[in-house]
Amino acid sequence: MVFSYFLWAIFALGATALPAPTFTFSSGAARPAEKQVLSEYFDMLGHKVQAGRKMSQAPVCNLKNAAQPIHSPTPLSGPSIGLTLKHVAIGRGTQNYTCGTNATAAPTAVGAVATLFNASCVASSYPDLLAILPNVALQFDLNLAPSSTLNLSPADLMLSGHHYFTNSSTPFFNLNTRNWKLGSGGFAKSDAMPAPAGASIGQNDQGFGAVPWLKLTARNGATGGLQEVYRVNTAGGNPPATCADHLGSSFDVQYAAEYISLPSTSKSTTTSTSISISISISTTTFPPNPAKPSPTHHTPH
């Protein structure tokens, strides 16, 4: 289901009564902080419903309208010249750590595992909703089995890939699923900034902070033209400061984030339309889009 059309269906229903949704929270039953997060989400959704009643047609899923969030006061380095926005996903999973026998040592990061859900249409039409979705998603349990086809609650986003590490320094993204074939490949960290103040520290507002925002660049062998990936709007994922409670063991910390994928653009298939993505105080303008839009521009999810 395309999120834009999910909202449009609500708009069209108007005052029709809908059954209350049921969700599985991380704690089984919603705790106060989780209720607050969900309340803010549905309050924003309610405003979209009111605005939607004045629409004559459903919002168009077009990534030309998407904007990358600004990291203040210091932004991540901008996308390289020649790239265009291809895919936006909400990643939900765990950051993975290990500890030795030194109680005062900091845990060692050994990778991450996340399921990716297609949020491209949300990015194009509802950037304010997109910005809070990682924190909303963090509050719910998630079936991380590779065979899972569950959508991401409560936005009903469809699965669009998987993220994991092939070794301690190579994050890998597989964006090839039965719904989309967007490419895959290993990446390397190019830039990093601490998560901004106010980022969710963890589930139920308990934890050790949000993992940093990142810019990743593709290693040799990436397919689908994938060149760069940004991890932004992070929620949770940081470990405790020391290994005191995890001596001689490995452990996971729940997290969620927004992932933005940028592939190269072929000059031979361009039009006069360009994409502008705000990445700092200034605006970076990318070269023209291909004449034939990528599947994420119009494919339902």
From TrEMBL:
Keywords: Signal. Residues 281-301 are annotated as: Disordered. InterPro entries: DUF3455. The keyword Signal applies. Pfam families: DUF3455. Residues 1-17 form the signal peptide. The keyword Signal applies. This is Malate dehydrogenase. It comes from Monilinia laxa (Brown rot fungus).
